[in-house]
Amino acid sequence: MGNKNIFTEEDFALINKEFNALKDNLIRCNTPECVELVTKAFSLANKAHLNMRRRSGEPYIIHPIEVAKIVNAELGLGAKSIAAALLHDVVEDTDYTLDDIEKHFGPKIASIIDGLTKISGSYDNRNTSQQAENFRKMLLTLSDDIRVILIKTADRLHNMRTLDSLPERKKMKVAGETIYLYAPLAHRLGLFAIKTELEDLSLKYRHPKIFDEISRKLKHSEKKNQAMINRFSLPIIAYLEAENLNFDITGRPKSIYSIWKKMQTKNVPFEEIYDILAVRIVFEPVKGVSEKTSCWNIYSIITDIYMPKPDRLRDWVSRPKANGYEALHLTVMGPHGRWVEVQIRSKRMDEYAERGYAAHWKYKGDNSQESELDKWIKKIREMLESPNSDPIEFLDEFKMNLFSSEIMVFTPKGNIINLPKGATALDFAYEIHTEIGNNAIGAKINYKLQTLNTTLQSGDQVEIITSDKAKPVKEWLDYVTVAKAKSAIKHSLRIEIKELKDKGKNILEEKLRELKVTHNSEVYNKLLPGYDCVSRDDLYSKIGNESISLDNIKKILKKNPSSRIIKYWELRMPGSQKESKKKDEPKERDIDTKVPYLIRESVDDMKPDYEIAKCCKPIPGDEVVGYIASDGKIIIHKPKCPVAVRLMSSEGNRLIAVKWTIHKMVSFLAQIHLEGIDRMGVVNDITNIISRELSVNMRNITINVNDGIFEGTIDVYVHHTKDLNNLIMKLVNIEGVDRVKRVEDFN
Question: Is 217 found in the same domain as 207?
Fold first, then answer.
């Protein structure tokens, strides 16, 4: 038998067909020079990936071609970016080196490829996460050349489109990382179409049942929704045509992910999401009339026809979002009592919205003033250049900077500062300047004195009060949400600790010289337990901050070290077997990650080798994912649990697919929430169904009645989600009970 990897005539025909589809549809650059560069990149990549196949079985080169198509058609980038997309896996997966790329294509394309190539063998496996380091390395190129991030986002989009061929645990890792980092990053760069698709695909692989159910319901109501959009749009079209406007009007339902998020946030089923429909109006500007004026004129026309919902007006025309997005959004009451969202954009705004502000970057000759995106990239660069930051901590801080909700706060002179929703006065202080943050003692918010941990609202005017004597304290880390502030506080605290250690060390050495005692390990073997310290640094710090007095040092030095202390030092001896054991590596266990781990009941009263996560409390029947902890135990999470999503993004190699086996003996705690109209005996009916009719054990019941409306929670022990769903169905049929739902997050 021949090698199954060797390409056939059909493979070569497919490769040529896909490349010609790319080459014949170059959008921004179809000059002979551009076509020559793209063809040259394809030839090298095709040669490098010869006889290599993806897990799906197709020739590997199809993947770079598809990424190049996204870079070309969906991002609108030029020939160099398309060439880099074709070459993006060559250095990582073949024998070609960066020097080879530079020799053939020059330093700029080589630099982009370097940013796209993962780290291999250059990180310390004990102390960090390869996923976090790879992401960090890629971001280091961000302020040098944003094309690296754009091509990487295109790469991730194609990987998500072809995720079916990967094993279950890899799907979870990639989908989790996508929703945690890549979708928010695409949003931050203004790539809205890509961000929406990444969110939907991530949901498809993390929660296939939910995705399929919402897709089916949208499909079922597709004709009805289209008829509704047509009916809604007709009077608007008539008015706009009467104004001689050149425009396009389109309608569509919201994305599956945004519908699911709304269901989660509002705790309602699909049928109760009323603003599923969205209509977009894209107009050609009229000569002599500003785009802003045109947007408000169209707004006026729509609100003459339909009643607007006042709290749903979003004006990103007067002040665009930080990622460059401009539009006017309003929600109006359409036919049949349905809320409809309307987005109003000019042609230029629409291009920015779909392809991203990043596609209009400075390398295209845009020499306009510094944008909000420039400022954001500078902040990220500052975070990346912090030499001591832990990669996983960096990931979390970076995530915080991918905020979607922003507030605008004013300085005393009227300058605008953008901050994430939930930011405090102390965040604002550090945003102005690190020294102002370090010396802050209070704030005047709208001329009223407030504490530094006061949460700011959009439109607040803030003045920071400072003192030369003030300095950061550890509690401030709880006061701030912005990465810049957190980083500055940690840096200041590290400097202070170092100064205390140096001061304490000098005091101790001076004291030992006075006593004519030699400075050696034997002395520290007596001093550390004598002053209840775990290390020399701990001892120096306590002496430095005067929590230790050296008055009794003579007495301590006369004592003999106990055997316990000797053993203590042996345990922590650098290079010892225990010390060198990798801290974050799970203990060796016989776990086959290729097949799902089965959650079984404990046998013969032995404790199970898994643990139900306390953060999300899954029960049998829930979708679950396993995480191998450092002690070898498998922690069972729900895939949508924020902790699980974070683990998928930073420690994906520790995730495993998990399946429930039938639990007959073991009960799991769940909580249900009820509400309805109060009547005599309703609580009795509820408890009778739970305990007598269904034989379900209750741990706790809390019912509150207010003005004839009752609501409450009941903690119950169940074996499976089927039991819980059965219980909910029974309870909702009780007279007076209006709504019953499972509480996903309870203590």
Answer: no
Q: How far is CA 720 from CA 636, 662, 664, 666, in A?
A: 15, 8, 9, 10
**Domain count of the chain?**
5
Contact 135, 181 (CB under 8 A): yes
- Please give the full DSSP string across 287-312, using - where no structure is assigned: TTS-HHHHHHHHHHHHHHHSEE-GGG
Give the angle subtended at the CA of 610 by the CAs of 656 and 639, to the nearest 5°: 45
Confidence of residue 140 (pLDDT cuts 50, 70, 90): low
- Rounded CA-CA distance 455/233 in Å is 41
How would you classify residue 105: left for phi > 0, otherwise alpha for psi between -120 and 50, otherwise beta? alpha
Asked if the structure places residue 314 within a domain, the reply is: yes
Number of residues that this document lists for the chain: 747
Helix (H, G, I), strand (E, B) or coil at 695: coil
Per-residue model confidence (pLDDT) at position 84: 93
Strand partners, 741: 673
Helix (H, G, I), strand (E, B) or coil at 78: coil
What are the helix (H) ranges across 592-694? 642-650, 682-688
Q: Give the structural domain span for 296.
A: 213-360
Return the CATH number at 63. Answer: 1.10.3210.10
Same domain for 218 and 154: no
Most confident range (mean pLDDT) of 25-34, 57-66, 379-388 is 57-66
Q: Which residue has the tokens 């790469």?
A: 155
Catalytic residue positions? 92-93
Q: Are residues 193 and 235 in the same domain?
A: no
Q: For the chain, what is the total number of helices (H) and then of strands (E)?
A: 30, 20
pLDDT per position as a tens digit, 477-488:
888 988 778 888
With b for 16 or more beta-carbon neighbours within 10 A and e for fewer, the 131-167 pattern comes to bbbbbbbbbebbeebbbbbbbbbbbbbbbbebbeebe
Contact assessment for residue 396 and residue 385, using Cβ atoms and an 8 Å cutoff: no
**Burial class of residue 615 in the structure, from the number of CB atoms within 10 Å of its CB (0-12 exposed, 13-18 middle, 19+ buried):** middle
Q: Which two tokens stand for residue 413?
A: 């002179």
| Residue owning tokens 């701030």 | 480
Interval 235-262 mean pLDDT: 90
Contact 329, 281 (CB under 8 A): no
Top-ranked range on mean pLDDT: pick from 204-218, 370-384, 541-555? 204-218
Amino acid at 410: F
Establish how many alpha carbons lie within 13 A of residue 724's alpha carbon, considering only the half-sphere containing its beta carbon: 25
